[in-house]
Structure formats: structure tokens, C-alpha cells
Design a protein that fits this description.
The protein is α/β, with parallel strands linked by helices. It is built from 35 helices and 32 strands. A hairpin with an 8-residue loop joins strand 14 and strand 15. Helix 2 packs across helix 11 and helix 20 runs antiparallel to helix 21.
């Protein structure tokens, strides 16, 4: 009857469950506090594995924009559930109706990271430094527990500078800040991958133990939908149990369905770091202890963030557990008692028979053990663990040691062992005799009577002592000498060059990787030298490979003699050698060794009846300066070696990545520059030159700009030197001249009849061979333009060239009516005699003087002296870099003729400058005065 009722109940339950999918799912939202990552894996698992759906829920999981988004949205009703830190307790105390449903992280992952200093870690290094700890605009967050920790360590918040948290590890790595709040499940992986040395400081070290992520809801949700809250919590915890026990599957799920911001390796790193924080095996996920919350409240009270002894009733969700009838348990206990009584009766009836059988078994066992002891292929000895005396020894043990039982009885255990190995075995025996371990294994060496060394595998097991006796141990040994010799030979052949006995490529790469790791820890540098013997092929071809091998052996010896024992010399093959120099103490240390190697290899090589002479080319690269991985280091060292060969051999050359990148950029930019004219990529800009007394604009300086199709606007400072080096400057200068002539013709006709345009002339253009300025003059005549329409600006350096070519060019310009301006005056090397000797019309005061003009300043005195001197020589003065009305007024008061600078206008495209001229018919200086 009961069975029928139970069957009917099960059938009804099955029908009810079958009907659940047909019901409409309740839609709820879970608001996360951060972006998708393994930190929220349990919720993804509950969603993707259908746990929420089985609970009748359609859950939307949203990423967080900031740490307080879950709290805001849950209280506002935008989300029913959220994830938050222990600061939820502060929100509750502030009157916000939040209820914690369960704790995911039993321990907070929040900590502080600082760069390693080389000394013992000390959090007080933070005093006076910059730190990113939480957001400066949010009231709540994990920053509270770190601030409490720092206060307890004697580092109050007033003793250091807090800056806004960027959540970018690069800010700590690059030294933008000195400390950064991190999650121990996240940022350390980034630091480790980049080789950044760091120390972590955790609040748990001083007893501040906060909860980490917590699942929470609002009182309104709990009051209106208690069943839904219970179902959501249960499904979430079920998802967390699955995620923590299926970490790889959970990581793949995140990559597939949620986010690829982090790679799989990082997600699995998060998972591993979460295990000791979540403690899924020791603690039921979701469990929370009121005493822990009380501890957190006391920490907050200590910070003055809440009252002491505050009550937070209703803050923790209580899971309802239905009561289970215990009647079945009582009946089971009664049945167990009856079975125990019956079993005891049977046991006592068989006890005497079993004892007799046991004694017989022991006797036979002792016989079998003795037989195995004597016939074992292993050497076995029973030894007193205190006195090391032999108590029993089998034949194989005697054979391996090469001594009789009588001889061994006179010795103590380990007396014939190698001293280096005995020390390690005695350390293990100390643990064995104090019962910290029950057994151990070791590889050891022992000396036979003939002096030979035998390798043995040793296995030691403690034996339970009888009452009142010393403890004993069983020592079993196996002779592995032949195996060890074979392994040594194989290892030697695999890792060392058979000709020179130097490490080969395999061993070299292994040692380099090891040295790079040590360099990261010690913050030291490594040098890699790539050595290639010059003219070695000729030795091989003329004297034969056998003599070539003799030379290589001697070369290996010479190179090794030039370095320390801690350094590595290897032969990669052929006539190529490499050297690893570690723990470099001074910059010139590498150069001294490289030069010593070169000098050593220059000495003659005695090859029987012949002598050979070779030299070497050495390429040098530094770690971590030039590269961070082995392949790049070797590639750069090889490139530097070829640079040494190209420079004439018998020398060393450093790899300089900055110069290499710069050279590559210059090559690409020069190639692009060759097509710039045909591609019409150049543009002419003009900047007005203002007459300071009247404010009129009757002059302008033409300035070239390059609109690169990919790089955008390229500075003349970058491409003009390339144009000069490649010879393209002449064609570019011709283009600038023709464009300037076209525009000055327009402005002289439509704006001002005496308008002038200044052109900058490169020294290479000015000194070029050929027709000189004849082409310019012919073009000006074709446009009906006088020479006075142009001014050629040259630098002071040109005047130092006393050649007739320079004088002829200047005379040619004067005869054509083209005026000359001396640019950047005061910064070069020209003297007053040059101003007297050559026909110069304008001096341009360099902006370095104008920038710092002030009454009674040295720059003002120099500027006044230049102006007076120029006027005495009949020259006009143009001041560059005028940016303020004060500078303009000081220059005007000193008698300066013209001003040029951002105060009046920046350089602008020709079309804009054309409009600018027409719009500024009123003198520009007057308009500036009005504006001011």
C-alpha cells in the first residue's frame, strides 16, 4: 500500500517536472561588477548548462562598467541580483536594502602590488609615493580593506598620494605609480608574463580577512519573490560547484560565449588562483559566517566608517531547510545494534581458531621473508638508526659494496659513501628518526676497496621498533653505475661539441635561458657575443680539414681563456662561436673582453709545419636592452657580427636597435619621398611677416609641408634632412620656388604691389653646381615679376664657406634684385666681418632670444644690440617667434622692423593665407591691440 502511494507521488512529481518547461520563464537580471572573466564563471555555467532554466528563470547576465554598478542597479530595480564586495555591509548600514545571498570568495583576492626593490619587502616604502587604490569618486569598494591594512601597518592614507585607478598594469610596470591595488587572481599573471619583479602585500597578513565576491539582492525582491530568490541562489551555487570542478571546460565556455579579452592561459590562471580563495572542497560555496561579517564590521568601525556594535539584522539571507523525519534513522540504528550483537557472538566463536591460523601464517611469512631477503637482486641491510651499525646484510649488498659481511660489521653505515652524498642522506635520516617522514630515496656514490666509485640507487624505510630498543631502518640499494655512465655519455654527446669540448648549440640555448631568468631576478644585464673567424675557409681549403680542426680547437682554448669561469663559451658549428657574459659590472667590461678575444686570435696558429693567421669579427648584443627573447638576441648578435665584417673585419660591433629602426624608417621615408612630387603630396604654407610700426602685412615666409598618404603630415624637420641626403632637395626647392612665384604674382596684383615672399634655401641648394639661379630669373621674367618679389633665406653656416661659389651666388642674387635674409641670427658662427663682406638685406633674430624677452633681461639686451648693429650696417631686422603682445611691444620699442610668430598668425595653407590677407586689410597690429 505504501509502495503504491509512493509510486503515485513520484508519478505526480514527474508530471509536474515535465510541465515546468511549458511554463513561462521568469526574466531576471544579474549585474556583474566587472567585465566577463573567470571571476564570474559559476554564473556562466548556471546559464549555459541550463540550471537557471530548470529553476524556471530566464537570466540576463550584464558586464559591469564600474564596481558600484551592481549596487546602484539592484537598489534602483534595474537588476534583481548583483555581485559585490564586503562593502555591501557599509551600504546596509547606510540604510540601503541589500541582502547577501551567499559568499563566493571566502577570502578577498584584493592586495597591493609594488615593484621589487632588491631589499626585504616593506610596505612602508609606500610613504610619500603614488598609489592607485580604488576609485577616488566612489564611496565604497575594496579600497576600504586596503586602507585598513595600511593604517594597521603604520601607513595612513595621508602619508601617500592616492591617484585615480586606471586598472592598467602598465602604469606600475612603467613607473607611473609606485603601488597598485590588484586582484591576486588577475594582474600577477600579466606581471609574470612580462618578467616584471613585484612584491604583493595582503591585508590577511595582519588579520584583516574580508569576504571577496558576494551574490546579493534587494529586500524588495526577497519580499515579493522569495521562491524565485531561493531558486536563483540554488541554481547559481550549483553553477559554481560545476565551474570550480571543471575549470578547463569553464574557460572554454567563457572564450566561446562571453569574452575573448583574456586568453585561455590567463583564464586558467584565474581559476587556479581562485581555488584557495573560494575553497570549494572545504567550504560549501555560498556559505557565510556571521562572525566573519562581525569581524568585517569591526574593521570598518576602526576606520570610522560605521558605529561600533552596530546590528545588521536582515543583511544575511537564511537558507530554508525542510525538516526530515528521523524515524528511519532510529530504525536503522536499532538494526545496526542487533547486527553488532550477532557479529560479536560469531567473532568470539572464531577468535581462537583465527589466532592459531595467524600464528601459523606468521611463521610461514617469516620463512618467505628470509628467503626473499637472501635471494633478492637488491642489496638489503637492516641498520640501527642511532648507531648506524649493521644488524643484518644480504649477499647482494656485500657484492655491491665489494666487502664481506665481516668487514661490513666492523664498519658503520655511510662510512664508504661519497662525502657530498652522505651530507644529504644524513639530513634525510634526521627527518626519519624524528618521524617527520617514514621513507626516502636518494642517488648516491660509494667507494669500493679498489678505489673505484659505484653509483647506487638508495631506498630507506623506517621500521617500527620494539619497546625499549633503538629504531631501525631497512636500506635497499641497486647498482646503477653502468646506467649512469651511459646517461653521462649520452648527455655529453647531446650537449657538448665533440671537437672542442665546448657547449654546443643545445647547451648554449639552455644556459642562455637560465642566465636570462637570473638576470630578471637580479636586475642585471647579459651580453651575447657572436664570433666568426675571418678567412677560416682559406685555411680549410689550403691546409685541409684536419688542420682546420686543430685551429678550431686552439681558437676555442684562446676564447675561453679571455672570459671568467662563470661565463659560457660555446661553438654553434663551423667557425662560429658564442660567448655569454653574465652579471656585467661596468659598460666597458664587454669591450675589454671583446678586444682581448680579438688580440688573442690575431696571434699565429701553429699547425704542424705551417702557420696560419686569422682574425675575428664579433657582434655584441645586450639583454634586456636589445631584445627580450633568445631568437631576437641571436638574430641581433648575428646582424652586429656582419656589421663588423662589413666595416673591415678584426673588430667588434654593437647591435643598436634604435639606430636600426631609425635607419629602416629613413629608408622607407626616403623611398616615399621620391614619389611625393609626382604624387602632388607637397603643400605650401605661408606665415605673415608684420611691419611692427604700422601693423601692415607686406611679407610672408613660404614653408613646405608633406601630406604623406599613410603617415599624414610629416614635419620638415624629419624629411628635409632626408631630401638633402638623397639629393631630392634640389627638385623640391624648384617646386617651392615655382609655387611661391605663382602666389606672389597674385598678391602683388590683387593685394599689395610690393608684396614679398621669403624662401628657405638649403646649403646644398645654394652650393649646387650648374646653371645656378638663371632658371629662376628666367621664370620670374616670364611672370613679369621683379627680383624684389622674393627673399632668399640662408643660414649663418653658409657664410663660413669662403669659396668663390658662395660669393658668386650672392652676387647673382643681388644683381637680379633678389634680397637675402640671414636666418636664425645669433645662434651660429658668423661674425661681423661676414655681414660687411656679403650683401645681406635682413637679419632674422632667432626665436630663442624672443622667447624669454623681458625688460632688463640679457635676451633683451642682446636683441637691442643686434637691432642697433643691423641698422648701423643698413640691414632690416625680423624677429621670429613673437607670441605675446609684451614681446611685440618690447621689440617695437627697441626699433625692430618686422615681427613673425603665432601672435599674428600660424603658418597656413596658401588658399587660407590668401583669404587671411584680404580679411586683414586693416593693419594686423592694430586689430590685435583692439582685441586685447
Amino acid at each position: 500500500m505504501r509502495f503504491s502511494a509512493l509510486a503515485a507521488l513520484c508519478a505526480a512529481a514527474a508530471l509536474l517536472l515535465a510541465a515546468v518547461p511549458a511554463l513561462a520563464l521568469e526574466k531576471v537580471t544579474l549585474q556583474l561588477k566587472h567585465v566577463h572573466q573567470f571571476q564570474f564563471a559559476g554564473y556562466y555555467a548556471a546559464q549555459e548548462l541550463g540550471y537557471y532554466r530548470e529553476a524556471g528563470l530566464d537570466v540576463r547576465i550584464l558586464e559591469g562598467t564600474d564596481g558600484n554598478a551592481p549596487e546602484r542597479d539592484v537598489i534602483a530595480g534595474k537588476a534583481e541580483y548583483g555581485t559585490g564586495s564586503s562593502s555591501l555591509l557599509l551600504a546596509r548600514m547606510a540604510g540601503k536594502p541589500v541582502v547577501v545571498l551567499g559568499v563566493i570568495f571566502q577570502h578577498s583576492p584584493y592586495a597591493l602590488a609594488m615593484r621589487q626593490s632588491g631589499a626585504e619587502p616593506d610596505i612602508r616604502r609606500l610613504i610619500g609615493k603614488r598609489a592607485m587604490i580604488g576609485s577616488l569618486t566612489d564611496d565604497l569598494g575594496n579600497a576600504d580593506e586596503l586602507l585598513a591594512y595600511l593604517t594597521k601597518e603604520g601607513v595612513p592614507a595621508t602619508s601617500f598620494q592616492r591617484v585615480e585607478h586606471s586598472f592598467n598594469p602598465d602604469d606600475l610596470i612603467n613607473g607611473k605609480v609606485d603601488a597598485m591595488a590588484i586582484y591576486t587572481t588577475n594582474e600577477p599573471d600579466t606581471f609574470d608574463r612580462l618578467g616584471f619583479p613585484y612584491d604583493i602585500y595582503s591585508p590577511r597578513s595582519v588579520g584583516i580577512d574580508f569576504y571577496g565576491d558576494n551574490l546579493f539582492t534587494s529586500e524588495q525582491e526577497l519580499a515579493n519573490h522569495p521562491v524565485r530568490v531561493s531558486a536563483f541562489r540554488a541554481a547559481s551555487m550549483r553553477g559554481w560547484q560545476w565551474a570550480m570542478s571543471h575549470q578547463e571546460e569553464a574557460a572554454d565556455m567563457i572564450l566561446s560565449k562571453y569574452s575573448r579579452r583574456s586568453d585561455r592561459q590567463h583564464l586558467l590562471y584565474e581559476a587556479r588562483q581562485m581555488v584557495p580563495l573560494v575553497q570549494p572542497v572545504l567550504v560549501e560555496i555560498g556559505y557565510m559566517n556571521p562572525d566573519r561579517w562581525q569581524h568585517i564590521a569591526e574593521v570598518y568601525a576602526g576606520l570610522g566608517m560605521m558605529q561600533r556594535q552596530a546590528r545588521f539584522d536582515g543583511f544575511m539571507y537564511r537558507v530554508d531547510t525542510s525538516r526530515t523525519s528521523l524515524a528511519w534513522l532510529y530504525r536503522l540504528l536499532v538494526a545496526v545494534v542487533l547486527l553488532l550483537v550477532l557479529g560479536a557472538a560469531i567473532h568470539f566463536s572464531l577468535l581462537a581458531r583465527e589466532r592459531k591460523r595467524a600464528l601459523e601464517t606468521i611463521r610461514h611469512g617469516e620463512q618467505r621473508f628470509r628467503t626473499m631477503f637472501e635471494a633478492s637482486p637488491l642489496g638489503i641491510a637492516l641498520i640501527d638508526s642511532i648507531t648506524y651499525e649493521y644488524r643484518d646484510i644480504n649477499a647482494r649488498y656485500q657484492e655491491i659494496l665489494g666487502r664481506s659481511q665481516h668487514e661490513l660489521r666492523a664498519l658503520r653505515w655511510l662510512e664508504v659513501g661519497h662525502p657530498d652524498d652522505v651530507v644529504q642522506i644524513k639530513a634525510q635520516m634526521a627527518l626519519l628518526t624524528t618521524q617527520q617522514i617514514s621513507s626516502f630515496k636518494a642517488l648516491s656514490r660509494l667507494f669500493r676497496p679498489d678505489g673505484t666509485v659505484t653509483w647506487i640507487d638508495v631506498s630507506v624505510n623506517a621500521i617500527e621498533p620494539e619497546a625499549g630498543t633503538h629504531p631501525h631502518h631497512l636500506c635497499m640499494i641497486e647498482d646503477v653505475t653502468a646506467k649512469k655512465q651511459s646517461e653521462t655519455l649520452i648527455w655529453q654527446q647531446a650537449n657538448f661539441d665533440t671537437l672542442t669540448q665546448l657547449p654546443n648549440r643545445r647547451m648554449f640555448l639552455d644556459r642562455l635561458a637560465h642566465d636570462m631568468l637570473k638576470s630578471q631576478r637580479d636586475q642585471s644585464r647579459i651580453a651575447v657575443l657572436f664570433i666568426d673567424l675571418d678567412h677560416f675557409k682559406e685555411v680549410n681549403d689550403t691546409l685541409g680539414h684536419q688542420q682546420g680542426d686543430v685551429l678550431l680547437i686552439d681558437a676555442a682554448r684562446r676564447i675561453s681563456a679571455c672570459v671568467r669561469k662563470s661565463d659560457t663559451v660555446a661553438r654553434l658549428g663551423g667557425d662560429e662561436f658564442t660567448v655569454i657574459l653574465t652579471e656585467l659590472e661596468a659598460p666597458d667590461h664587454v669591450e675589454r673582453i671583446a678586444q682581448a678575444i680579438l688580440n688573442s686570435l690575431l696571434k699565429p696558429f701553429d699547425l704542424g709545419q705551417e702557420q696560419a693567421f686569422v682574425s675575428a669579427s664579433i657582434g655584441i648584443t645586450l639583454y634586456p636592452d636589445d631584445a627580450l627573447d633568445i631568437d631576437d638576441l641571436l638574430k641581433h648578435a648575428d646582424q652586429a657580427m656582419y656589421a663588423a665584417k662589413g666595416a673591415g673585419r678584426n673588430r667588434y660591433s654593437y647591435f643598436t636597435p634604435t639606430l636600426q629602426v631609425a635607419a629602416l624608417n629613413r629608408m622607407r621615408l626616403t623611398n616615399d619621398l621620391r614619389g611625393a612630387l609626382k604624387g602632388q603630396q607637397f603643400a605650401l604654407y605661408f606665415q605673415p611677416i608684420v611691419h611692427l610700426e604700422s601693423g601692415a602685412i607686406h611679407k610672408a615666409e613660404a614653408l613646405i609641408r608633406w601630406n604623406h598618404p599613410q603617415r599624414g603630415l610629416v614635419s620638415p624637420l624629419e624629411f628635409i634632412p632626408l631630401a638633402e641626403a638623397s639629393g631630392l632637395i634640389v627638385d623640391i626647392g624648384e617646386w617651392v620656388f615655382h609655387e611661391s612665384a605663382r602666389w606672389v604674382q597674385r598678391w602683388r596684383q590683387q593685394v599689395y604691389g610690393e608684396f614679398q615672399v621669403s624662401l628657405n634655401q638649403s646649403p646644398l641648394e645654394f652650393q649646387r653646381e650648374g646653371s645656378s639661379y638663371q632658371g629662376w630669373l628666367a621664370h620670374l621674367q616670364s611672370l613679369a615679376l621683379p627680383g624684389q618679389s622674393l627673399v632668399v633665406e640662408i643660414t649663418e653656416g653658409l657664410l663660413l664657406d669662403a669659396s668663390s661659389a658662395v660669393s658668386n651666388r650672392l652676387l647673382q642674387l643681388r644683381d637680379a634684385g633678389i634680397q637675402v635674409a640671414l636666418d636664425d641670427f645669433g645662434t651660429g658662427y658668423s661674425s661681423l666681418s661676414y655681414l660687411k663682406k656679403f650683401d645681406i638685406d635682413y637679419l632674422k633674430i632667432d626665436r630663442s632670444f624672443t622667447r624669454n624677452l623681458a625688460p632688463d633681461s640679457s635676451d633683451m639686451a642682446l636683441s637691442e644690440a643686434i637691432i642697433v648693429m643691423a641698422h648701423k650696417l643698413g640691414l632690416k631686422v625680423i624677429a621670429e617667434g613673437v607670441e605675446t603682445p609684451e614681446q611685440r611691444d618690447l621689440l617695437a620699442a627697441a626699433g625692430c622692423d618686422y615681427g613673425q610668430g603665432y601672435l599674428f598668425a600660424k603658418p597656413m595653407p596658401a588658399d587660407q593665407f590668401d583669404a587671411f590677407l584680404r580679411d586683414n586689410a586693416m593693419p594686423l597690429a592694430a586689430s590685435i591691440v583692439k582685441a586685447n
